[in-house]
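Hello, quick one for you while I still have it in my head. Could you read through the record and tell me how the tokens relate to the sequence? No rush at all, and the record is pasted right below.
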Amino acid sequence: MRESRRPRLILGILLLVAFSLVAIDLRADANGPLGGLKRMTGSVFGPLESGTSSLTSPLRGLIGSLTSGSANERRIADLEAEVARLRATGSSPDAVRRIAEIDDLLRMSQAGQYRMVVAQVIGVGSAQGFAHTVTIDAGEVDGLGVDMTVMAGGGLAGRVVSVSSTSAVVVLISDATNTVGGRLEGSGEIGFVSGTGSEFELEFKLLDPYGSLKPGDSVLTFGSKSGRPYVPGVPIGIITSVSGTPGQLTRQAKIRPFVNMSTLDLVAVVVEPPRENPRDSVLVPTAAPSGATSGVPTPGAPTSAAPSPSPGASGSASNSPVTASPNASTPPPATASPRPTSDGASAATESP
């Protein structure tokens, strides 16, 4: 009789622990009394999520070997050789997509002079009181901290809201509670970008009711003090429609984000902001699609020429990691590398 009760007792204990962890996840504040327990559970279960992720690629280990220093050239050569091998052997669509994503992250790092750590998305769902979050397989041991900017191929993805030793939770800009200081390309007009709960649409409210605002304009991050939670110059999205007329206090616009929040795979966390505001240098000018305004910048689109780094930014192409683009014969320069981070710069705050 006692032996038959033991399995039920163990099952009951496990269920109790599971419900307790769910309650901690929903109610714990990262800085509150339960924050430590929350981080401890993240340290325990983060590696399990990472181990069960089916999205891990052999490319990650190769790219993760990139560091700053004299060994760059050899490691860059290894990466280029791997890309060439994948092309020659008819690589899978998933591998080609990954190469393109990494190439774009490295391009943005070089153009904006961001020091970044690349990570893999290992979980999607709601956490920390937010509806739109993802869990990534990088944490405190990789130099991550709360309120760091997170990018994906194309532009801004979100910000870090909690960190354990080996994983972190990122709230996406699509979350309805999220607001980002935004700036229009070219004119520099500033306003606020808010999530709508949709992965495909954001709202932008201009501070100056008389400021120029039109479809086709690109919006970038204005930049927070000391670069947290948002560094300056990261592409957010493109304006698709404008409501109201100049002078109306309720004038606002709809934005299509450059990043597809529903298909996030590889992301990059900015662990050190640039010394100088990159302004619009991270945007990539490409031919506009049919029906769109000519010359609309589209981050993430392949180009044959590398973007120019921002004026006054440190680093040069001669000592920066470079990866071969799957869509161009000339690889763009870059300064970011997964995990072992590239040479970066100190924080900066954008001025209007």
